[in-house]
Every structure is written in C-alpha cells, then in structure tokens.
Design brief:
This protein has about 350 residues and is an alpha+beta fold. It has two domains: about 5-105, Phosphorylase Kinase, domain 1 (2-Layer Sandwich); about 110-335, Alpha-Beta Complex (Aminoglycoside 3'-phosphotransferase, Chain: A, domain 2), CATH 3.90.1200.10. Helix content is about 40%, strand content about 15%. The protein contains nine helices and 13 strands. It has helices spanning about 5-15, 60-70, 120-135, 170-190, 240-250, 260-270, 280-300, 305-320, 325-335; strands at about 25-30, 30-40, 40-45, 80, 90, 100-105, 110, 140, 145-150, 195-200, 210, 225-230, 235. Strands 1, 2, 3, 4, 5 and 6 form a six-stranded antiparallel beta sheet that branches. A four-stranded mixed beta sheet has the order 8-10-13-9, covered by helices on one side. The protein has a three-stranded antiparallel beta sheet with strand order 7-11-12, with helices on one face. Helix 3 runs parallel beside helix 6, helix 4 (about 170-190) crosses helix 8 and helix 7 (about 280-300) runs antiparallel to helix 8. The chain is globular.
Length: about 350
C-alpha cells in the first residue's frame, strides 16, 4: 500500500532512524496503526488523523503514564522516543491534508478481542480495570495533556451539540443533566478527600489484546490475560467515570447483562467496587454517550448517522427522565443497581 497514511508513516519512521524499516497496516479507526519490523524488535506506529481531539501535551502525558505504570509492574506498551527524545513526531506529506501526529510504541504480542467478547474476557477486563485503578497516579491539578474529567464532554473539541438539528434540544437537556451529575461527583469526592487520578479513559474490549503473559494480578485458571493498549485518551478523573466508559462499550454486546456482571465480579476480586449507585451510573453513561455524539458531530465522517443512532434513543429517554431500556437497563441491573 502507498499514499495517504502510508506516506505519513514512512515520513514518521525517519524521525526514529527507521526510514528503511518494513511496515504494514494492522488496524484503522480514529488512528491508523502499523506493525514496524525494526532491527531492534517489532514496534507499533500510530498515525493520527488530521483533526486532533486531545489537549496539547497528550503524547508526553501518555509516555509519563505508561512509564509510571511500568515502573510499578504493569504490563503496558512503552513509548519509543524519537531520535531527539520526543514522545511523538508531527509530519506533513503531500498525499494528506494537514499535519499528522505519530507515535512509536513497543509491540505487544497478542490477538484482538473479537466482539462480542466472552464472559470470561469480560471478567478479566474487570480485573484489569481494577489493577490499573490500583496503580493510577493521583493528581491534585489537571495534568498537562490529560483530558479533563470535570467536563462531561471531556475531549478537547468544540461543543457542537446545538448543531444536531431536531436532536439538539434533547442533547442539550441531556448534557445539562449529565454535567450537573459530574459536578456533584467531583464535589462529593473533594469533600471526602478523594483525589482524582490519571486513568486509561477508554478501557474497552477494543483496547486490549489477549496475551499469554503474566500481569500484576494473574488471572484465574486458564483464562487469557488481557493487556491494555492505547492510552491516548488518558483521563484526569475519578474511577467511577472510567468504569462507566468500560461498561457502556461492554453493554452494546450484552443483551442479558451477563458480561457487565462478570466485569464487576472481576473488578471486585481485586479491589472494592466504588460507590456507584444506579442514578450516578446512568448519569455517567449518558456523559460518555454525549462525548461520543459530540465527537461524531465534530469529525463529521461518513457513517455519522449510524454512529449517532447508537446513542440518541437512550439520550432521549435520559433527557425526558424516562427509565432506561434494553442493553442499558440490563447493564444497570447487572452491576447491582436498581431503578
């Protein structure tokens, strides 16, 4: 393959002294990821889109978090610095509009988790979430580069909810309710002396690999070990917010709630489940939905209508004060909440 992101990848590799290294695309979503067969070992090169959704300094923050977690025993990828020591490199090529931020990371051997994940994998994802929460560094002030969990929309993009046509009033009402809940959460945690932490921010089954490698807390029996990847959305927030992100994605493939229940069981095997009552969890699920809806509006990619449809029905019920239905109701019931 030539042109486009491939050209950006080749340009980026020159900053690492790997201009002649063979590479091949392995995945594409928000970013495009390449496997690089470097002389010193296999690497993963992440090529970003033209439009960034993160705060300035995100690459350095990601490197700092991964270094901190690794220093305390977590199995995580590590950022490979450029020849001049930077955490990432920005390239511009004629084949693509705008600049592209690129990061080279150590390669994690493993296989992607297929959807839907198994119940055992959901349990292991919960354990992994708990392990990372145990190791997450606390921070009294917003760290440079981290997404700000005090903002219900979180990402460093404009608020375009009012541009959603007939859905705009519904989305704005949902946003006002979710933001009030986030404000209350932060105030309550401050009153109790609970600091915010730097968290993964997107720990879902799409951001882990199955790998036959030990973790800080071994999985039981012969279940696969899940290794986390893609810490780019690192979030300064509270663990309840991070859990809602994981549960929302998990619930999309979980009609009965058994995977969400397994996630909580895995988490609780490592550390106590936090004070996450039914109302707060629903508020935080709505906040995550709003983040994804707003990102969809900002990025305006093909297929946006389908992406919006994943969340708007649930947000309409939330904004109207109606009880949840379907997968969201199953998820709330599965983690021990009732309405």
């Amino acid at each position: 393959m030539t042109g486009g992101p491939h050209a950006a990848a080749r340009a980026a590799l020159h900053a690492y002294g790997l201009g002649d290294a063979p590479f091949a695309e392995v995945s594409t979503s928000h970013n495009t990821v390449y496997r690089v067969d470097a002389p010193g070992g296999r690497r993963a090169l992440r090529v970003g889109p033209q439009r960034t959704v993160h705060r300035p300094g995100a690459a350095a923050a990601e490197r700092a978090l991964l270094d901190d977690l690794a220093s305390r025993g977590a199995v995580v990828p590590r950022v490979v610095p450029t020849d001049d020591g930077a955490a990432s490199v920005t390239v511009e090529v004629p084949e693509l509009p705008g600049e592209r931020a690129c990061m080279l990371l150590t390669w994690v051997d493993g296989e992607p988790v297929t959807r839907p994940c198994t119940v055992a994998q959901a349990r292991d994802l919960g354990r992994l979430s708990a392990e990372l929460h145990d190791l997450a560094p606390s921070a009294l002030l917003l760290p440079p580069g981290a997404l700000d969990g005090r903002d219900a929309l979180a990402f460093a993009v404009p608020d375009l909810l009012d541009t959603a046509g007939r859905l705009a009033p519904v989305l704005r009402a949902a946003h006002e309710r979710a933001q009030a809940a986030v404000d209350d959460l932060w105030e309550d945690r401050a009153d109790s002396g609970t600091p915010a932490h730097v968290l993964h921010g997107d720990l879902t089954q799409t951001n882990v690999l199955t790998a036959d490698r030990p973790r800080t807390v071994p999985a039981e029996g012969d279940e696969p070990r899940l290794v986390p990847i893609d810490f780019q959305d690192l979030l300064w927030g509270h663990v309840e917010q991070d859990l809602a992100i994981s549960l929302l994605r998990l619930s999309r493939d979980d009609e009965t709630g058994e995977r969400c229940a397994a996630f909580r069981a895995g988490y609780s095997a490592v550390r106590p489940w936090p004070a996450l009552d039914d109302a707060l969890l629903r508020d935080l699920l709505a906040a995550r939905r709003l983040q994804l809806v707003n990102l969809t509006l900002v990025l305006d990619r093909p297929g946006s209508d389908l992406a919006l449809a994943l969340h708007t029905a649930a947000l309409e019920r939330y904004a109207a004060g109606a009880p949840p239905e379907g997968q969201e109701a199953a998820a709330l019931a599965a983690v021990g909440t009732t309405l």
